[in-house]
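Because discrete structure vocabularies remain unfamiliar, we first show an illustrative case, written as a sequence plus integers encoding its fold.
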Amino acid sequence: MVPDPAVLRQALDHYLALAADGDPAVAVTAQNAAYTLCVLTGTRTVEEAMSAVRVLCPESMTPGPSRPRTLIVPTAESGSVQPEAVS
């Protein structure tokens, strides 16, 4: 099953906006958005989800002027949120 590109783009934009916020108060919401990306792409980690987005909807990964350069990635060990650089 392949997610609708518009839905995938919306979920990606939502996640990236939360990741760019940097406010610890939005950490749980960012984790929920990361989980949604994983469900939509059939993956288990944000890293895998981002790779899947590149394949399923490459136009979603086109950098724009407002695209953040850092993602918030929940770690499996602690459930905490760690920044990860995006190339």
About this structure: Strands lie at 70-74, 81-85. The longest helix spans residues 5-21. Residues 5-85 form one domain. DSSP finds three helices and two strands in the chain.
